[in-house]
Design brief:
Blueprint: H1 2-15, E1 48-53, E2 66-67, H2 68-78, E3 82-86, E4 90-91, H3 99-110, E5 114-120, H4 128-135, E6 141-145, H5 147-151, E7 159-162, E8 166-170, E9 174-175, H6 176-180, E10 182-190, H7 192-210, E11 231-236, E12 246-247, H8 248-258, E13 262-267, E14 273-274, E15 277-278, H9 281-291, E16 295-301, H10 309-317, E17 322-327, E18 342-343, E19 347-350, E20 354-358, H11 364-368, E21 372-377, H12 380-394, E22 399-401
Helix pairs in contact: 2-3
Length: 414
């Protein structure tokens, strides 16, 4: 079935012609681009903005970066025609930080903005009440995609497109905890080429959520092909990547292999195994980089301390030029919050010149079986900002070096 769906999709993609569809703390405002025309093929520093979440009670906030909640509210408020939101799941709670976002979505729908949501079907029972809220927004459409039937994985992507001209993409789930209790990094991009690619991907998956044998809705959009000048999207899994957008793993490997001096990596999960079987594609790329003299710093969450994953991290520490640290975020005093108080960001800074950022944990299934979306920003200004986020956490009291002789006990997650 996957091969049949993929074949039909690729036929449609190849038949199209090229076109671009355009049309807690003090935080900076999102500014419109200086020149929307040039934004179609290239981005100025003003057209790209990092978006940061930090756990309350920590000293990890960066006053120079906008918070996720503020960015989401501002972007939704600016929508005039369409909001297409792709996520893993939705989770809210009374009085918590996602409520202002939901209220802004309600206002957008009320003023006539077409709102569509695409979520993972296997996670649809996570918060039925908020899911019903989304379904009842005026004119809104919610579809659930069972990616397990397509590629044995999940719809793990986290992005949204505003008016086919502006996008948000990052590690942040549509979850109140991602706004106030988890370390997350995302990016807002004003670039109609990139927005067109993600709008196409959304339409493709939105159609598949209706019918696994479907291709796209009637009057399908046309995919802008290839990367923009300094921004490139990568998509997983490869068999369901539209022609014109490269699969995510080769894009990431290119970033690793092109590094000359330094790689700073922050992840929720890293594994050189799939179950009991070895999957060392990324492990080998990192070892090769270290061998040629690249200094590698890896910052991994304490959720990754089970076997065999902790063994993979210990193995990396035995090689020159590789340092690995485990980050642990303390619980809120007197309160345990499930699936929170963790570093969830997924990004790499190469030579303080290139930033890879996305939704993909470094595990085989994330690249080969699940829908994920990543972006490479070849922009030194943005890369340096992300490097500052990394350095703040790397040098904090929350991170400690991996001890090759220690028996690790994974933390409570739920």
């Amino acid at each position: 079935m996957v091969d049949a769906v993929s074949s039909r999709l690729r036929f449609l993609f190849l038949s199209g012609t090229f076109a671009i569809v355009s049309s807690g703390c003090v935080t900076p405002q999102i500014q419109p681009p200086l020149n929307p025309v040039t934004a179609r093929t290239q981005t100025s520093d003003r057209d790209v903005q990092l978006v940061l979440s930090t756990p309350v009670g920590t000293n990890l906030a960066d006053p120079g970066l906008i918070t996720t909640q503020a960015a989401w509210v501002q972007l939704i408020a600016r929508a005039t025609r369409t909001i297409d939101w792709a996520g893993f799941y939705v989770a809210s709670a009374a009085g918590e930080s996602l409520e202002p976002v939901l209220q802004e979505l309600s206002r957008a729908a009320a003023r006539g903005v077409r709102v569509r949501f695409l979520l993972d079907k296997q996670m649809s029972g996570n918060d039925p009440q908020t899911l019903r809220f989304l379904e009842r927004l005026p004119g809104a459409t919610v579809r659930l995609l069972d990616f397990n039937l397509l590629a044995t994985g999940s719809h793990h992507a986290k992005y949204f497109v505003i008016d086919n001209r502006e996008v948000f993409l990052g590690s942040q789930n549509f979850d109140w905890r991602s706004l106030t209790h988890i370390h997350e990094l995302g990016v807002r991009i004003f670039n109609s080429h990139i927005a067109g690619q993600l709008a196409f991907l959304f339409d493709m998956d939105f159609a598949l959520a209706r019918d696994r044998n479907d291709t796209l809705e009637s009057n399908p959009p046309v995919l802008p092909r290839g990367p923009a000048v300094d921004v490139e999207v990568g998509v997983s899994p490869p068999q369901l990547a539209p022609d014109g957008i490269r699969p995510a793993l080769p894009v990431l490997l290119e970033v690793i292999r092109s590094a000359q001096k330094e790689l700073c990596i922050q992840l929720l999960r890293y594994s050189a195994h799939q179950g009991s079987e070895t999957w060392d594609t990324l492990q080998e790329a990192l070892l090769q980089a270290a061998t040629r003299g690249v200094r590698i710093q890896m910052l991994i969450s304490n959720w990754n301390t089970q076997l065999p994953e902790i063994g993979d991290l210990k193995e990396l520490t035995r090689h020159p030029n590789i340092a690995v640290r485990i980050a642990s975020i303390p619980e809120v005093t007197g309160r345990f919050i499930p699936y929170a108080r963790v570093i969830h960001s997924k990004y790499v800074v190469a030579d303080e010149r290139t930033l890879w950022l996305g939704t993909t944990n470094w595990e085989r299934g994330m690249f080969m079986a699940s829908r994920n979306v990543d972006v490479v920003l070849r922009k030194a200004t943005i890369a340096k900002q992300a490097h500052g986020v990394f350095s703040r956490l790397w040098n904090s009291s929350y991170s400690v070096p991996v001890d090759p002789n220690k028996e690790y006990v994974p933390p409570r997650i739920r």
